[in-house]
Write a structure and sequence with these properties.
By secondary structure, this protein is mainly α. The protein has a domain of 55 residues: Orthogonal Bundle (Arc Repressor Mutant, subunit A). The protein contains five helices and three strands; from the N terminus they run αααβααββ. α3 packs across α5.
């Protein structure tokens, strides 16, 4: 019994929309002042919305390593970086190789890196 009610409701809605299309009535024309008011309301609504506050992003592993290297004056070796960050040897070496390739750091001596 519910299905027939839904079907008849859909048919009646379709008939109403078809009747509106047949009449062809347009919305009343607005004056220039009326259009300006509508435009101001739209702008006011857009300005009123604020973006949600974002949380501070946690620094990436590369950021942590580059920060340590940037703070040093003489340069830092891999073992020091491993001890300060707690990362594995391979991870530190990969970060250093990538940063060197991007010219974010430079090699002072073999195994010692400083900020570029």
């Amino acid at each position: 019994m519910k299905t027939t009610k839904k079907a008849t409701a859909k048919k009646s809605a379709a008939k109403k929309s078809a009747a509106k299309r047949k009449t062809g009535k347009k919305a009343p024309a607005r004056s220039a002042a009326g259009k300006a008011k509508v435009a101001k309301k739209r702008v006011a609504k857009k300005v009123a919305k604020k973006a949600p506050a974002r949380k501070a992003a946690t620094p990436t592993a590369t950021d942590q390593v580059l920060k340590i290297i940037g703070r040093s004056t003489k340069g830092v070796d891999v073992t020091t970086l491993k001890n300060k960050t707690g990362f594995e040897d391979k991870k530190v070496r990969n970060i250093l190789a990538r940063a060197y390739k991007q010219k974010k750091i430079k090699r002072v001596e073999k195994g010692i890196y400083a900020g570029a």
